[in-house]
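for the writeup, i need someone to sanity check this before i put it in the appendix. the sequnce is what the collaborator sent (i think, or maybe the updated version? ugh). structure was predicted straight from it, no edits. if anything looks off just tell me and ill rerun, i have time this weekend
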Amino acid sequence: MKTRKLWFGFIAVMTISFSVLIYYGREIYKQAPPIPSEVVTTDGTVLFSGQDVKDGQNIWQSIGGQEVGTVWGHGSYVAPDWSADWLHRESVYILDYLADTSYHKAYADVTAEQKAMLKIRLQHELRTNTYDAATGKIVISPLRARAIKAVGEHYTSLFMADPKLEKLRDAYAIPPNTIKDQGRMNQMNAFFFWISWTCVTDRPGSEISYTNNWPSEELVDNKPTSSLILWTGFSVIMLIAGIGLMGWYYASRKEEGLLESEIPNKDPLLGGIFTPSMKATLKYFWVVTALILVQILMGVITAHYGVEGQAFYGLPLSGILPYSISRTWHIQLAIFWIATSWLATGLYLAPAVSGKEPRFQALGVNFLFIALLVIVVGSLIGQWFGVMQRLGLVTNFWFGHQGYEYVDLGRFWQLFLFVGLVIWLVLMARGLMPALRAKSENKSLLTMFLISTIAIAAFYGAGLMWGRQTNLAVAEYWRWWVVHLWVEGFFEVFATVAIAFLFVRLGLVRISTATAGVLISTIVFLSGGILGTFHHLYFTGTPTAVLALGATFSALEVVPLVLMGFEGYGNYKISQSRNWIAGYKWPIYFFLSVAFWNLVGAGIFGFLINPPIALYYMQGLNTTPVHGHTALFGVYGMLGIGLMLFVLKSMEPEKVWNEKWVKFAFWAINIGLALMVLISVLPVGLAQTWVSVRTGMWYARSAEFMQDPTIAFLRWLRVIGDTVFAAGTLALAWFIFGLKGGWSVEKNK
């Protein structure tokens, strides 16, 4: 297949998609919910300043931010969504006050007609936008000021050490004295008020709140907008159309696989090049294996906090390892080990592809290894000091905990990691350059490899685009550049190219077929993937156009995933084609599981929550970690393990593996992941969705609902899947270390 048209298609997709993404990013800056200069009452009393709101945001970030409950639906799932919780508590206070003064009864005791009238008064009180752009002030009634004071006192008791709320703190896995200073607590309350204000206040000239009427709350008439419903329907139409076109493409494409006679009769890697820098990547994979074990341990502790609050099987851990830290490390370590596996694979492949070892390449690989170790250890320690309130707000931003899920590490460590990725890019470019200069048919594939390498280094830089006190709506825009485009986007492209090179190097795929396949896959994936970033931003203070674009293009993200069976079947056929290929059986099987979890985790479970109307009720519920676990570990984790095993095998292709432990690891990890989701996390998420639709987001995340005996039982069931999964990772580690120790290699073979 000619690649010229495919390159034009790739350039067009990148140019158009990023132009639209950046244009609407500019609109997000312009239309972000305003942070007031002051919040004052009609009689002139100042409640708090805009600086209090900004400092309160930093204090929230310092205790873990999105790792302690959620804001606008983004974050962790044991504590409440603070925007929904504050809004409901403020509404109930005002309704009770109005009912008492009007009818001398509690709101719950008045008639249906009286409730309706009181709700209209409440909605007028809360939905009316009293922000004055000229003065920068938000003016509220004395009644609302009393409601703010009452809710703030509740939060003060919760986050500090009121013994009356000990049981509630356990339900939320929030240690006593999480906030140690009353001044800090007051500022965090100011921030919580502001995020709640954005959820209920109508945009100027509109009857829709800054967050597109999220969360659902019938007391204040927060309900799905007409745009939300319209674009949900359109997203389904786009999905069906996309699947139809992709099916037509697959049906019309001629098979371009190798003939049986073209497959090599022996392993082409036997006697191949094995340079010092390639050897130096081995220690990366040892560290990857160790990080997997620590990450799984943090996951077990984090999941257990959800049912026991402050302890781990009776052991009081929260004093030294609070939930916000265990969850931060669980997610951060996942990103670290997956990225390290992929980066090491790239460093291994570069000289293998070019057939040459640049001068001092091994030194560079070793230096990068030390730098990555410092980043991992340093950032984790800094996060602990931040959450334990040992750092000032500025110091915490630079060296502690930024409070943004997936990019929690302090700004200094972000910069350090960015520099590390640039060093990796230089090492990759040096390794690939001899092959790029040579005239060969694999030049297009090498070019795509280099482009994906540049993108990995460059797009992490998006995480440096927000400052310490950037408006949360703007920070969320850039955060999803990192999470969606860096992790889910260009790492996927890089992995596609890397796997293509591995199969080409083994003589199992023609270079022309691999090149065309990589370009087509990249075009299809990025067509939906780049603008699909917006589906994370439906309810984060963004304009309606973001909702329309996100709904349309996130549906297209699913299209290439529904046909992953073709890729899986192709990998399976490859594993059966020659006896020597059996040595690569388990790396290929992990690639096969990637295809399965791409379909199920990223495809089915992704589309379960992606349509706007679904996400309106599901954002911030346990349906999100269903997608998160099956996509992050199921796809990117399995891919990282597969790449690691492939490299380890190609380092010593003449050795025969003892497959007992890797076989157990493969099945236990996959079965454990499925059990974790299907018998625990998914049922809890669906139950939450039911009550979110019927009652409201606040109730779906409340201690009252989450501590219900049935829900508690479903959460305890997770132990089954977690145990099987953990056993699989232990077996994998035992196998990998056994390649060096000797017990994972067959003797006399």
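The chain has a mean pLDDT of 90. The radius of gyration is 27 Å.
thx in advance!!
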